[in-house]
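Aim 2 progress update. The chain analyzed this quarter is reproduced below.
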Amino acid sequence: MAAVDVDFEGVMKGRHVTLQLQTDEGVTGIAYVSRINPRNTRPMVLLIEAMVDNLAGSDPTRTEVMHKALYTGQLGAALSGLELRAASAIDVACWDIAGKAAGLPVWKLAGGFRNRMPVSANWGLMPGPPRDKVAKHLEDVIGRGFRTVKAPCGLAPLETAIEHVRFIRECVGPDIKIIVDGNFQWGLRNAVRFARETEELGLFWIEDPVASHDYEAMRQVTDTIDQRTCAGEVFQYAHEFARLLEGRCSDYVMIDQDLGLTGFLKVAHMAEAHGRQVVNHLASEALSHGLAAVPNGLIVGLVPWGQPLFKQPMRIEDGEVVLPEAAGLGLEFDEDVLAKCAVA
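Predicted structure tokens:
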């Protein structure tokens, strides 16, 4: 296990805790967790170590058994906070082991619906940089094969956000899809205003326009506007997604790795029963397998801050990520990067 600070092409930095989980048979499963800061790095490492110790002697290929053991705390209470993130790393590593043991890629082991997924470039488009820099970034990601881009706009004044998205559409033309993230900032009135003033731009979706806990406001936004909405990225429990889905509060559902890959699949199937498609929040390398496994996977959001950790970057072709055919997650840590970027 190692905590590392890595930098993707000088434009996106991240601290991650990486895990290499080895079985008695010598099979190693890998995973990483993000959103780590200097104050919680050591607690995260200790939590993962303790959880791994508690699972000694277990069969990691029995992913439901492992998930149940990982996500049930003392006296049967649910985990919370950093515990969930720690458990998620072990759950993902177990899926990697299960895939390697079966000789199958995880996306195929978990359902195998498709081996390619549409992908969006989810970095470098916040309002603020000069327009020529924004235009250059868009030219770069489109040149790499992306056909969808994402702009987090919620922290900018509303007028600035509207003008920023209009400029993006001018740059990319009519055929590139644009996602806009409201970062939970707008509230009902401004969310509706934003949607109506950008309606002619044909956005792919508007994400998290209101506070994450305000299910009613999210439902009203979804019912009121003609553009599609997406929510769920901060939810850590199945009952939160159940309320979102039963209330028909968003058109699309975003799922984080905090639930583990096992929990991701549970929520994805729940969403399918409600006629909703799902997308990932972060952890693109692992959650792309979950999205490809199910019929209602919509698109992989690539946040590339974890890409420097691996020898194999995600393969992007014609607006899609091509899932690996290698057993497990098809990933291998770059040990030189881990050593060079290790946090003391």
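The first strand starts at residue 2 and ends at 8. DSSP finds twelve helices and 13 strands in the chain. These observations will guide the mutagenesis experiments scheduled for the next reporting period.
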